[in-house]
Amino acid sequence: MPAIYYQECSYTNADNESVLDTLLRHNVAIPYGCRAGACQACTLQADIKLIPEDCQQGLSAEQIRQGYFLACRCIPDQDMQLQKVDLQAQKIPATVSESFLLDEHTLCLRLNCRLRWRAGQYITLWINNIARCYSIASVARLDPFIELHIRVYPNGALSKPLSDTVKVGDRLQLQGPLGRFVYQQDQPEQKLILIGAGTGIAPLIGIARDAIDHQHTANIHLLAAAKTGKNYAEQSLTALQHSVTTFSYQTSDIDNIETILSTEFSNLRGQKIYICGGNEFVKSIRKKCFMLGASPRNIISEEFINFASKAGLDSPDTDL
Ligand code: FES
């Protein structure tokens, strides 16, 4: 079994166990969030030659060169000497410029910060030692702020304090932007179908506005799925539909999306599909779109991370 050396102690790595799980099993205090390779909260450093493949995804070229890796993705195949990373140096300060409810469960948070981002990417937001990922709904060229749509859970480790105590003018910290779920500018004449569930609509609103801003000439249709059939973003989608003739949307109960696709979008050949939502939703809609003729290379998707199940926490913030 490989040994892990960290802060002058050694720990035995169990079979098929990640570095993060080894450290947590030995009660080592180490920051982490998603346990799925998305939030970068568990970043550590080691000799580059000892780092297995697939555990540096999303890190910058410079971080990779310096031997940074994600402890939750790293299953060591040899002994590893680890160094702590100064996470503080990776974080960017952001000031809350607006905070209001979109509906009784969904918070809109607008942040001012010095960051280059694209609509549809996500950031990791920190309060104290808690990290959660949220997708960006705003468009850098149009909006002077990063806009996040945050589902507020009664026991949400981050969403609850964001909703209850964080106010305009407060300073938060974030990492990012991360991810490649963005508008692709290569074919402005290609019809876009955007399909989102819950706050998965947030990055799609950004992608639609980004496409329109980039003079996308073909039609853009957004299918908004919600558990209750009630869409928290109805107001902004209606406004967008009224102002741009090529944009349209419809809202549906989450269980009806596949039926709508079969009846109203029976041939998706040549169209580009963006999907965002929970793991099961994304998987089934991807399959459905493929069955309806969409090419796999034209299906782009982003899955939420269920922090509750991944992190073993009672804090189901899931808004990536
Ligand atoms: S990337 Fe490892 S905990 Fe999120």
TrEMBL record:
InterPro entries: 2Fe-2S_ferredoxin-like_sf, 2Fe-2S_ferredoxin-type, Beta-grasp_dom_sf, Cbr1-like_FAD-bd_dom, FAD-bd_FR_type, FNR_nucleotide-bd, MRET, OxRdtase_FAD/NAD-bd. Residues 89-184 form the FAD-binding FR-type domain. CDD domains: fer2 (cd00207). Gene3D superfamilies: 3.10.20.30, Nucleotide-binding domain of ferredoxin-NADP reductase (FNR) module, Translation factors. Residues 1-88 form the 2Fe-2S ferredoxin-type domain. This is FAD-binding oxidoreductase. It comes from Zhongshania arctica. The lineage of its organism: Bacteria, Pseudomonadati, Pseudomonadota, Gammaproteobacteria, Cellvibrionales.
